Every structure is written in C-alpha cells, then in structure tokens.
Amino acid sequence: MSAATVEAKKTLRDGAFGHATALSCRECGHQIELGPHYACPECFGPLEIAYDFPEVTKAEIEAGPRNIWRYKALLPVPSDIEQSPNMEPGFTRLLKANNLGRELGIDNLWVKDDSTNPTNSFKDRVVACALSAARELDAKVFACPSTGNLANAVAAAGARAGIKTVVFIPSNLEQPKQVNSAIYTENLIAVEGNYDDVNKLASEIAGEEDGWAFVNVNVRPYYAEGSKTLGYEIAEQLGWRLPDQIVIPVASGSQLTKVDKAFQELIKLGLVEDKPYRVFGAQAEGCSPVSAAFKAGVDAIRPVKPDTIAKSLAIGNPADGIYVLDVCNRTGGAVEDVTDDQVRDAIVLLARTEGVFTETAGGTTVGVLKKLVETGQLDTSLETVVINTGHGLKTLDAISDRVGARATIAPSYDAFVAAKII
Ligand SMILES: *Cc1c(COP(=O)(O)O)cnc(C)c1O
Ligand SMILES: [Zn+2]
Questions:
Q1: Distance, CA of 251 to CA of 229 (rounded, Å)
Q2: What DSSP string runs through 75-107?
Q3: Of 37, 192, 294, 418, which one's alpha carbon is 20 to 30 angstroms from that of 316?
C-alpha cells in the first residue's frame, strides 16, 4: 500500500472541505482525519467522506447557481468554492422521454442528459470536486488514469484552474477522446495496455512522486462525491421527489453508488419523502464483471479483460463493483449487460426518438433499459430515469457504418424526384 503522496499543507485552512468531518472506512468504519488518503490504515478498505451536515433548505439550494455548487453544503468543498476558477458543471437537462418511452412501453420515462456538461460527459462533476481537494491540499500536478472522458475533464479543468495536468490513457482509445484531451494539455500520455494497466501505473506513480493529485486514486474520496450531484439534481428536477427506478452505467461503479448515497442523504435531510426506489446497473457484455456477479448471486467480483466498443465503461477490475451489488440487491434492482450490437442499436434509438446523441456508454445504458423491459425486470408502470453520461461525437466510429447519407443526388429537382425520397 502506497503512502499518502499529496503533501498536505501544514495546516489545512478552516472549512477547506466544507462540512466534511473525516474519512471513514466503508468496510470497518475506522475514521481518520481529512487528507490525501484513500485506503483505510486498519483494513485497506476504501475511504469515504463523513459529514456533519447543517440544516439545508430547498429554498437555499434553489437560490444557488445553476451548476453543482448549488449543492455545495453537501459536498467536501469550501463555502467560497465559486470564487476559484472551475468548469461549473451540472444542472443538465432532465428530459421527459415520451417517444422513447412509447417505443419501449414505459409509461413515465426521463433521460438525464449529462452529455451537455463542459467537456461532454458526467466526469466534469467528479473532477470539479477533485480539483477543489487538490487545491486545498496544495497539489502541484492534477492527474488521472482514464478510459477517456475523465482525461478530457481533468485536462480542461486543470487548464482553467492554471494547474499542471498529466493524463494517462490506454493507447487504443478512440481518436476523438485523445484530441479532446490533447487540446487542453501538453501532457497526454498513451500507455500500451488496457485501463486496468493504466490505473496500476498511476497508483505506482502516486506512491513514488510527491505533490500529485490523481483524481480517481489518492483524492478518490473527494472525487467520488461529485457523482452525488446527479442524484440531487434528478430529485430537484422531479420537484423534490425520488424516481421509482433509475438505470445507471457501471465502469468502476462509483457513480451508481453515489447516486444512491445522494438519495439517502436527501431522505435524511428531509428534502424528499422516504420511499422505495430501485437502482439498475448497466454494463457491456464485453466487460461485465459486475453483471456476471449479480447474475451468479455472488458478492465477489471476478476481474475480466475488457473487449467492447463501450470503452468508457471498460474497467475489468471495478473498485466499487461489490458496492454496486449491495445497492442493486438492497433496492430490488439488478445489473444487466448488452452486446456491442445492442449498444449501437440503442445509440440510434435514443437519437431517433429523443434527439439525443449519446456515446457508447449511453448506448449501453439505454440498451440495458430496453433489455430490462423485455426480460420483465423493470416495472413499466413506474416512473423511470435513465442517465446519459456522455456525447456521441466522441465515439463516431461506433455507428459510422450504421448511419449516413441515404442517397447522393445531383442538385436538380428531377434527381430529387428520381431518388423517391418521400
Ligand atoms: C466514467 C464513465 C462512466 C462510469 O463511471 P464510474 O463512476 O467509474 O462507474 C459512465 N459513463 C461515462 C460516459 C463515463 O465516462
Ligand atoms: Zn477499514
């Protein structure tokens, strides 16, 4: 186990992490002081942020900015967070998806469209929280191992914040995702290997080098809290109500577990009514270790070697996989997977029914939504939210042989008529 490597300032400033009080072990409950730590010193379990929340009202939140900082009282960030340059992500559209709902036979369906974040994926949310931690801990380098979108978000946020960035990706990553990082940083490093190899390398560097904040490694507890804002927003946008069912993509599993944490916090804070809800996880068949464990009814994840077009979900050894199983089992949900062809079909389906162009991760999620209906695992009479986490322009290759010009015609009315287009 590596030592903590972002050198904490001698004294953290007051309120550096807002109302967070400690880092708490998910496995044994042991608590340690806030800092650049991510593994329990007692049992090596993952650390999570513990809070002492103040009273928070709907009116206070609603009076806040139209980005994730409207929920800053519930995040490990200082109360003056809006003063520091950041990407101001969040408060993305919650779209009533009547056409897709009709197509799938779901009465009451919503798409939470996170593709409109500043770098076009939900990762801007988590990176904004990690950036705040990196700043408060006085990190010199802002870094990440990434399946693509995270590198885009880190590179952009670092540029805006004026902090040096280094982002590591698998060398076989889609070209648009490479350009979308390299445009913001000189330090895009392609590693010969898959994400799990890149992640291992990052942990090694974090253990050796001082002053590096790896957003999803040594400041992961702070990073992960950013995903809660998806849950808060969905509830607020539904009129301070929880949905009955929600379908969420699973890579490391962090996002899914944090949306659930957000719902639980809203209930505890009295901001929504306590009611049952079911959480469903979505994976691609070519990288489905969590789905496989769910279906086998076991509580351990067997790592796999990813082979899927859903590269942003291609984590073969997901850090939060076992906690995804906990959430889906506890809430009466499920984890499902779909083939790459079903992913492509679902990308086209979402675009043609709702005008939303998603990447392969969203294709996976919408594909799983469809499969859950077909297999009777989802109750089509209940209010359902599906999360679109990324943008289709980053994975054009996935569907470029499915869609294109229907006809190429001469610029004349006769040619138009001859082509029998309508
Ligand atoms: C990273 C990512 C996810 C999943 O994130 P985890 O929190 O690691 O499960 C989902 N969708 C997209 C587009 C992503 O980039
Ligand atoms: Zn522990």
A1: 18
A2: TTS-TTGGGS---------EEE-HHHHHHHT-S
A3: 37
Domain encompassing residue 286: 94-120+224-398
Q: How far is the CA of 212 from the centre of ligand 1 (A)?
A: 22
Q: In this structure, are residues 129 and 75 in contact, taking their beta carbons and an 8 Å threshold?
A: yes
**Domain assignment of residue 141, yes or no:** no
Amino acid code (one letter) for 388: N
Measured from the Cα of 114, ligand 1's closest atom is: 13
125 Cβ closer than 6 Å to some ligand 1 atom: no
Model confidence at 371, pLDDT cuts 50, 70, 90, reads very high
Nearest CA to ligand 1 atom 14: 312
d(CA 291, CA 184): 35
Q: Tell me which ligand sits closest to the C-alpha of residue 173.
A: 1
- Please state the atom number of ligand 1 nearest to the C-alpha of residue 390: 13
- Alpha-carbon separation of residue 141 from 135, 158, 258 (angstroms): 10, 9, 26
- Can you tell me which residue has the tokens 């002053």? 211
Would you say residue 281 lies in a domain?
A: yes
Alpha carbons within 13 angstroms on the beta-carbon side of residue 318 total 31
Q: Would residue 202 count as lying in a domain?
A: no
pLDDT digits (tens, 9 = 90+) for 147-206: 899 999 999 999 999 999 999 999 988 899 999 999 999 999 999 999 989 999 999 999
Q: Determine if ligand 1 sits within 6 Å of the CB of residue 123.
A: yes
Which one of the ligands is nearest to 227 CA?
1
Per the structure, how many domains does the chain have?
1
Token pair of 54 as six digits:
């103040």
* pTM for this predicted structure: 0.96
- Distance (Å, whole) CA 395 – CA 344: 11
Of 230, 258, 365, 389, the one to substitute when testing ligand 1's pocket (max ligand atoms within 8 A of C-beta) is 389
Q: Is residue 236 a part of any domain in this protein?
A: yes
Ion ligand 2 residues within 5 Å by Cβ:
25, 27-28, 30, 40, 42-43, 45
Q: Tell me if 185 CB under 6 Å of ligand 1.
A: no
